[in-house]
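Notebook entry, structure prediction.
Reason for the run: the old model in the group folder had no record of what sequence produced it. Starting over properly, with the input documented here first.
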Amino acid sequence: MRYVMVQIPNTPPPASPAPRSVPTSADVARLAGVSRATVSYVLNNTSAVRISEPTRRRVHEAAEELGYVPHAAARTLRAGHSRMVLMPAPAVPVGPLYGQFINELQWALGRLDYTVVQHGSVGLHGDEAARAWAELRPVAVLVPGIGLGPEGVAVLKRAGARAVVTVGPARVEGAHALLMDHGSVGHCAGSHLHARGRRRIGVVVPQEPGLEAFSRPRLDGVRRALYGTDASVAELPLAFDERAAAELAARWRELGLDAVFAYNDEYAMLLMCALQDEGIRIPDDTAVVGADDLMIGRLLRPRLSTVHIELPSGRDLADLVDRAVRDPDATPEAHRVLGASVVARDSS
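New structure, fully documented this time:
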């Protein structure tokens, strides 16, 4: 067998292209024909300086052509604080109503030149979570639910947070507060069912961890509404699961209930379908009321009665954050929110 030696030339690898330099505000200024200060005013939405619309347009077009993005860290150094508003990701299931509120809030804060960042802090709670949030040096923190204490507020402020806003049932020392009275939701539902002649009323209490801060006040609200009347209240633990709902529905006749406040519309729809599968007529045998006033409740048959919940305006909360950032030494504000009213439909 013959072998042939072939020499392969040692060809150097092709040279990689030279890295492109990162565009700067000076590059944008040259292309737009303006000063660097004007670029800064335009791209930082500074309202204190009047700049014509054609000039603003030229600056934005130049920045887009060059791919220029303002440097957040540099802006933080100039201003003495960041423009980051941190929102811990909810540790509990949130429905469409809360999601809509968050979207409106993010839009409103964006209009005020803040950047909203959601922070996942799975496994961290209370003041321990606050230390993790503080590492990011946000200018403001919006804390949903409960768990943050005065020590956690102090940790955030020492790290540079000018505004700490809690959204929950009680105030926290040192923080602004949006006080949500979930008891009023249950009170509305209980009063409505009693007025409709219902006397043996069940109240769904979700088994999902973390929902106790909302479900227990709603249960207490129903009890307050029926206190001193001839009606009784039965607590109904329920997981958000078709099998769990079917098991509860199978016991419904022995429970002897003629109405149920199902915590919210999603639980109401889950339980209502299970009850109908058991041959229980709604509302003839059992009236059903949910909460949140979701559109899908109007598509059910019978149409779902519900408690309409008026959440705070995202724009109003954004204004509160902005006021607190501008005046961090001001006395913390507290606002009672979460209006509740019954929307009576066919299911009750």
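Summary: The mean pLDDT is 85.
The old model has been moved to the deprecated folder.
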